[in-house]
Amino acid sequence: MTTKKKSEPELAPATISEFDGVRYLHLGTPWVQGAMNLKKPAALELEYIQRMMAWMLLRPAAELARGHSVQLGLGAGAITRFTQGVMKMKTTVVELNPTVIGVNRAFFRLPAEGARFQVLEMDAQHYVDEVAEPGSVDVLCVDLYDHEAASPVLDSAAFYRGCARMLAEGGVMSVNLFGRDASFVRSARRIAAAFEGGAVISLQPTREGNTVVLAIKQGTVPERDELVQRAQQIDTRYGLPARKWLRMIRPLPAEPSETA
């Protein structure tokens, strides 16, 4: 039996609610931490989760569903169900809160673990620093929030450098930046500094204020014609609004990068 360090915060218990055919995940507050359509569990119900998948635009069509996908923060398992269940990718989820994992298994159709899928109950920073092999990840989705959803739990320059380190060359990352105490500019510049030599762009915010940042390691954003072709293929194959994403792409704000 292990005991928590006194400095570690208590983790809020996961709870659920349902409305109009959609099941929602909460962490003891009204804030929505994830959702699943009960009739279409593989569908991506929340708009910001759909935009988290815009990393698909940055991968060649032939490689789109290849490799290892990692999610830091399980939420209601939407990205997991999509990468593992729909795209058939090898998928790893890192989630610190055991009640989130338990509720996902009981109520959000979390896939059974096996050779191509595993759930790791651990701190995402520990996974990035100590567990993930450098260059071992092809797709990384980061969505780390506490029960109040005030700001990202992990948002340091060192954290984003670790994220870049675990990605293979040409690997892609999507990050959800949201919260009343968050600074989009600060976070975006930290990501840009960590992915120096690659490319970083963002999508316009959702109505709720979620802004997704996309980064590619040691690569460039494809030309417009290539992006349009990829978006059409994603729309057709996976039913995601990829052509709409193209209209949302924004450059990062011009501000000196932070390296500390």
How do the helices and strands line up, and which of them pair or pack?
Blueprint: E1 15-19, E2 22-26, E3 34-37, H1 47-52, E4 68-72, H2 78-86, E5 90-95, H3 98-107, E6 117-121, H4 124-131, E7 137-142, H5 157-166, E8 167-177, H6 184-194, E9 199-203, E10 211-216, H7 224-238, H8 242-246, E11 249-250
Parallel strand pairs: 4-5, 4-7, 5-6, 7-8
Antiparallel strand pairs: 1-2, 2-3, 8-10, 9-10, 9-11
Model description:
The protein is α/β, with parallel strands linked by helices and 260 residues long. Helix content is 28%, strand content 23%. It has eight helices and eleven strands. It has helices at residues 47-52, 78-86, 98-107, 124-131, 157-166, 184-194, 224-238, 242-246, and strands at 15-19, 22-26, 34-37, 68-72, 90-95, 117-121, 137-142, 167-177, 199-203, 211-216, 249-250. It has an eight-stranded mixed sheet with strand order 6-5-4-7-8-10-9-11, with helices on both faces. A three-stranded antiparallel sheet has the order 1-2-3, with helices on one face. Helix 5 links the parallel strand 7 and strand 8 (167-177). Helix 5 packs across helix 6. It is globular and about 45 Å long. The model is unreliable at 1-7 and 256-260 (pLDDT under 50).
Features:
single chain, alpha/beta, 8 helices, disordered C terminus, globular, eight-stranded mixed β-sheet, three-stranded antiparallel β-sheet
